[in-house]
Amino acid sequence: MDTKKNRQFFLVLVPHQDARAELQKYSDSMIKNGLSGVYSFPHAAPLASLLKPLNVNELKQTARSLRDYAGKEKFLAAETSVCEFNTGGEKMNLFGPRLNLKNPLNVYNNGHKKIDKFDSFFSEVIIGSFLLPKTSEQSRILLQLQINKEISFRAAAIANMAICPVTINDESGYKWKIGKLCWLPRPNMLS
Predict the structure, then answer these.
(1) Longest Cα pair distance anywhere in the chain, in angstroms?
(2) CA angle centred on 119, ends 12 and 111, rounded to 5°
(3) Which of 50, 74, 96, 123 ranks highest by number of CB atoms within 10 Å?
(4) 62: CB partners within 8 A, 6+ apart
(5) What is the 3-state secondary structure (H, E, C) of 100-164?
(6) 92 in helix, strand or coil?
């Protein structure tokens, strides 16, 4: 296995495992219906590109700020969306359900020195299901495939995620790893 050194780090929102199970059913149904030529993506929503991972204290403070911003409302994923996603080399499209959360740039004050940039693709918070080449015609087709039912959740965590291109037996792909989850406080714990 040849792993390239150009890893990218992201701050991601990770839904509770019950919501991830529903998202997995959604992804599985698309594959069963003939979707091909895509790379899998963890069921997490990229929030910011990082120069280096946030430490535990920065994650905790950011989780608290994000919960304060989101309030007691549930996170809701109901429509599909596609946005540009930089994998550290090749520009890809990230496909998945869009959350009803606008990316609040002011919640990242605690780790702002580690934030790489706030690209426009972070303005839409999408729970990733697949990565596909930016030149793919499937983006238009995928947007027509709506999620069968709304997926809602209150419990969510933030974490660092690393993604890097890999080559195995002359086949290219992506390897990713999500770090330790830092759960958002319960909504009833808001002051």
Answers:
(1) 54
(2) 50
(3) 96
(4) 11, 54, 107, 108, 110, 111, 158, 182
(5) EEECCHHHHHHHHHHEEECCHHHCEEECCCEEEECCCCHHHHHHCCCCCCCEEECCEEEEEEEEE
(6) strand
Task: Report the C-alpha gap between 124 and 143 in whole angstroms.
Answer: 15
Rounded CA-CA distance 183/172 in Å is 33
Confidence of residue 2 (pLDDT cuts 50, 70, 90): very low
Residue 176 CB partners (closer than 8 Å, separation 6+): 41, 42, 161, 162, 163, 164
Residue 1 has pLDDT above 50, yes or no: no
Q: CA-CA distance, 67 to 38, in Å (whole number)?
A: 33
Query: 87-122, pLDDT tens digit by residue?
Result: 766 778 888 888 988 876 666 665 566 766 554 346
Q: Identify which of 73, 94, 78, 68 has the alpha carbon closest to the alpha carbon of residue 176.
A: 94
Alpha-carbon span 23 to 6, nearest angstrom: 29
CA distance 161 to 171: 23
Strand partners of residue 75: 153
Fold of 2-185: Cyclic Phosphodiesterase; Chain: A, (3.90.1140)
Q: What is the pTM of this model?
A: 0.85
